[in-house]
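Data availability excerpt. The first of two example chains:
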Amino acid sequence: MKKEKPMAPRVALITGASGGIGRAVALRLARDGIDVAAHYGGNRDRADSLVAEIAGFPGTAERPAPRAVALQADIADEAEVARLVRRTEEELGGLDVVVHTAGIMPLSSVVDTDVEVFDRLVATNVRGTFLMAREAARTVRPGGALVLFSTSITRLQSPGYGPYAMSKGAVEALPLILARELAGRDVTVNAVAPGPTDTPLFREGKSPGLIERIAGLNPAGRLGTPGDVAEVVAALAGPARWVNGQVLHVNGGAA
């Protein structure tokens, strides 16, 4: 009997893979045998560390060990986003999944927000999301998925998060429209909206007491973990084909 060749691995591009949630998503997808292009903006060391960790994952008789590469780009720059997608295809042989976690979260009240900070927020979170979504829509192969990132702050509406919540509200407007525009392509488009998640970025500038109060907002009485979010992304990136055009709030019941 002729031995069947292993199936060609799927390929995922994870933006912001040097951050807490992006890293967890990259590791989770790699454990499913998906090859990973780990995008980073400025933290090359963390991206290289992620790639080295994935390189240690074993393969099986049915599925080769996942491959990973670190790729740098400014996600607010049109030419660099196009180059990022092109290099992913060149390095790994195609593109099936794009998970866009990259973004920034400067916090201040509306009255105290400098317009230059707001413009940078919009350039990264709104323009960057649009550019990645557009390139993904042009490139992702049938059976693929695009997963964008919003935030549960759009529901929690906490003071100090106004400009950030505005930028993520724009993200939430996109999945259903783009999913409908891609009808017949067999490509799903969804957004994940995490609640308070235990990452270095979340803890920055917060007292232990404040973190404890925030953790108590959901029935579990704890912060989410990057792994909690990565499990949902893994489903959207793979078997959850009947979920399309949605914004999924991954927050343990906080809102």
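And the second chain:
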Amino acid sequence: MMNTLTEQRGYEDYETTFAAMRAFTDARTSNTANQLWMVEHPPVFTLGLGADPAHIIHTNDIPIVQTDRGGEVTYHGPGQAVIYLLFDLRRQAKKILPREFVTRIEQAVIDTLAAYNLSGERKLGAPGIYITKGEHQGAKIAALGLKIRGNGCTYHGVSLNVAMDLEPFSWINPCGYPGLQTIDMKTLGVTTSLTEAQRCLTHHLQVQLTQP
């Protein structure tokens, strides 16, 4: 792929970022560099295209936003590292298919967790990354949802729970799974700043997505 640029957008309302992603993708040309956007959102529930609103059990005044990504309902909030991937999958010599793109994103999360001595894994049919060991085995620590347009351009991305208030996850069926435990790095004993976790995840995404 061509050179990938990074942008730190800081603490930004979800709908602002969502609109910016679509505008960027609408305007990009064959010469537009791929980008990774690092952002932290105020509390928000987001619904994928096929999401069932019944999976939101209580809103507790948290806004709900309908999106055009894949997947079900998820929660974004302070202390979560969100990386949006604005890529053109046609850019590389060997065409990357959507499934491989997802696999590489998931591997970047696994490698990020490993850098903090945490072990994560995929689950068949359930996009995201789950803890493999200890009392929180099976808990979800990262979520993934993408929009891939017919022309191969992508947006939306991946979120990694770093140091969050996890209670809002109990007000939904995360990704459509009732009772799914959600965890963050802090609960697992990792002390790191959100900025450092974002940088680590961004680095591993760059490594994975610049492979031949």
